[in-house]
Automatic annotation (TrEMBL):
It is a multi-pass membrane protein. This is MFS transporter, NNP family, nitrate/nitrite transporter. GO terms for biological process: nitrate assimilation. Residues 24-424 form the Major facilitator superfamily (MFS) profile domain. PANTHER family: HIGH-AFFINITY NITRATE TRANSPORTER 2.3 (PTHR23515). One of its GO terms (cellular component) is membrane. Its main location: membrane. It comes from Celeribacter neptunius.
Length: 474
């Protein structure tokens, strides 16, 4: 699928929400932010939940695994659904339905009920695939890497913000309104669920599937493949070994981020003896790097692509993963807070740049099955989180678990060299990249000419008045 009229610039049009591409960009990252916030909203409150429901360390481990396991299947399905009904409807339904378990977790009364809702909440993690899909169909090759990376990075930011906002919201209910702690954490999740529901409704009315309209209209105009071809393209994408290499690679970066979001607050509370709020703030520093780190990964991915083509994007991905693994090994050895915090931040930087670098490659694997590729690779992130979660299920010391993960990530970085492209595709993408850059320059020239013409017209308008006043027109 190759849609027309994609935006060739992001930052120069950043506030022009009249453009459907820019309006969609802002809605996608904000919707993903809210989903990520809700997905991990319970994580910084786990010390309170643990005491009330009397959860063991083993049960907490199962909750961590459960929260990311169902997302594997949800992401595989949502990619196919995007190709079929469009990202606008897919996102709306996901947000509306996903809000129910977010609010429903407040009804938990024991480990089994808590685990059930924790697993169901994981379904909203599929929002990532829609976010990447929607920005990919809206932006041209010269900026698609940074558009994907920024929308996903700012969305992932919700995983950091929730680490300190949820304890504060919990404190408002407990200290401000006088509710018990058992009621406070439940009400906090209800508030988040209501917000998710409202954003889902807004997404339907404020976005469209593609630059030129919605998928239903484009199919009626024969400008898109028919729905019946979606499944065939999906199966063809699954046969591409590069998709599965990226599946593993994304598990080595995003899977690690999911794991850290789940365990960071508890890790710093137990290993560094911090309070609930303090541990939340420290853990938040990991997620807050998404404000710019993932964008950097996408920007450099586009730049490497401009210099060395598609193979340049793959090489940048290797660099990010290798340094992520090294940084994680270093973090695992830190035993005092003033060393652990900066090493956590450096580790976070390379983790999120690797995620951005991954999705600067994804749009070029198979354009006829974009949803399939985005879904499978996205599912790899959660598969990695599930496997990593077993290390934190009372198997070994958590610092040792981080060290093992660092070694695995460093080894996985070399898989990036297996993401290769044919000479024909390299040439086609170089041509498309050049065309997009030319279009960007043309539009900038048009704006400059319009500004110059406006200035000349203003000068001409001043001449009669200047002559009447006996002064020269400037």
């Amino acid at each position: 699928m190759e849609l027309e009229n994609k935006a060739t610039a992001l930052w120069s049009n950043f506030l022009n929400v009249k453009m459907p591409q820019i309006r969609t960009f802002h809605m996608t990252w904000f919707a993903f932010f809210s989903c990520f916030f809700a997905w991990f909203g319970i994580a910084p409150l786990m010390s309170v939940v643990r005491d009330e429901l009397m959860l063991t360390k083993d049960q907490i481990g199962w909750a961590i695994i459960g929260s990311v396991s169902i997302t594997i299947f949800a992401r595989l399905f949502i990619g196919w659904l995007c190709d079929r009904i469009g990202p606008r409807k897919a996102y709306t339904w996901l947000l509306v339905i996903g809000s129910l378990p977010v609010m429903g977790i407040g009804l938990s009364w024991n480990f089994e009920s808590f685990l059930l809702f924790r697993v169901l909440i994981g379904g909203i993690g599929a929002s990532f695939v829609i976010t990447q899909y929607h920005t990919t169909v809206m932006f041209a090759p010269n900026v698609v890497g940074q558009a994907n990376a920024t929308s996903a990075g700012w969305g992932n930011l919700g995983g950091g913000v929730t680490q300190f906002v949820m304890p504060l919201l919990f404190s408002v209910f407990v200290v401000g309104f006088g509710f018990s702690e058992a009621v406070g954490w439940r009400l906090s999740m209800v508030v988040v669920g209501v917000i998710i529901l409202l954003i889902g409704i807004a997404y339907f009315f404020l976005t469209q599937d593609a630059p030129d309209g919605n998928f239903d209209d484009l199919r009626a105009q024969n400008r898109m493949p028919e729905k019946k071809k979606v499944t065939g393209n999906y199966m063809n994408a699954l046969k591409d070994p590069r998709v599965w290499v990226l599946f593993v690679i994304y598990g080595s970066c995003f899977g690690i981020e999911l794991t850290v979001n789940n365990v960071a607050a508890l890790y710093f509370a137990d290993y560094f003896d911090l309070s609930l709020v303090a541990a939340g703030f420290v853990a938040a520093s990991f997620g807050l790097m998404n404000l710019f780190a993932r964008t950097l990964g996408g920007v450099f991915g586009d730049n490497f692509g401009a210099l060395w083509g598609l193979k340049g994007r793959s090489f940048w991905l290797f660099i990010c993963l290798l340094f992520e693994g090294i940084a994680l090994i270093i973090f695992s050895q830190m035993q005092v807070l003033f060393l652990a915090l900066p090493s956590l931040i450096v580790f976070s930087l390379f983790t999120q740049m690797a995620e951005g670098a991954t999705y600067s490659v994804v749009p070029f694997i198979n354009k006829k099955a974009l949803g399939a590729v985005a879904g499978v690779v996205g599912a790899g992130g959660n598969a990695g989180a599930v496997l990593a979660g077993f290390l934190f299920k009372n198997m070994i010391d958590w610092s040792e678990a981080f060290q093992v993960l660092g070694i695995v990530v460093a080894c996985a970085s070399f898989l990036a060299f297996f993401v290769r492209f044919s000479t024909r595709q390299e040439d086609e993408e170089r041509a498309a990249f050049a065309i997009a850059n030319i279009e960007t320059l043309r539009r900038r020239a048009e704006k400059a000419n319009a500004a110059l013409e406006h200035g000349l017209n203003a000068l001409e308008a001043r001449r009669p008045q200047a002559a009447q006043d006996g002064q020269p027109a400037e």
